[in-house]
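Consider the subject:
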Amino acid sequence: MLWMLGTIASFAAMAVAGRNVSGELDTFEIMTYRSFVGILIVVMVGLATRRMHQITTRQLHLHFARNIFHFAGQNLWFFAIAMAPLAQVVSIEFTSPIWIILLAALFLGERFTVIKLVTALLGFLGVLIVARPDFANLDPGLTAAAAAAVGFALTAVFTKLLTRQASVLCILFYITTMQAVFGLICGFYDGHMAWPSPAALPLTVLIGVAGLSAHFCLTRALSLAPASIVMPMDFLRLPLLAFVGMAFYGESLDIWVVVGAALILAANFINLRANAR
């Protein structure tokens, strides 16, 4: 629970910083600079703690698959937060735990119980109440958020597989280095790579630090508990970012957002109480 609170706070900080620099940098550029900041931090920590030997080339195929799905999901997410209200983006993104509950049973051998089904359905109902999507005219930002949710679910499944044999430092090293390469390839695809301005530079660094700390906390949480228990806690990010959108971006917070958030929090409570017993 404590590690997931760190994850939630880090993702919230990254969302605010990402929205503020999205007018200057595209998603590939944001991901590239974020990854290079992460590489610097991971290598410094590895050298300071004398744990660089933990970075091995074992399971490279799992690292590659994990980071392909995450890179795609994260780029879609940065696009979505620039195009749609934060509360709606995060609520659509929260279909990810529902995918995780299904994928964890399929690929990780975790039990699919009645409580997990109730958690998924209740959380999904809360998401629909908050977003109230118009399926006839889908918003590009919300569509990107939905696709990002699938990418994040697959990311969590591969992260859980990696935690069975790889250290946290090793996972974070490949997260940053592989995604830096992906970002450079995509960023230079049009022949141009923008540099952050002096005003955007601190926010770009914040995105890198927050992104790395989010993955560190998430990896630690997944190493201690099943993915289907850990990931539904991320629902707490919805009311937090709904408040941020209202306070700093003038986004409306109507009664349906409150009702949907309450259902999502109830789903978390049911899931955690059942697993605590």
User: Anything to note?
Assistant: DSSP finds twelve helices and no strands in the chain. The CA atoms of residues 101 and 228 lie 5 Å apart. The mean pLDDT is 84. The longest helix spans residues 60-83.
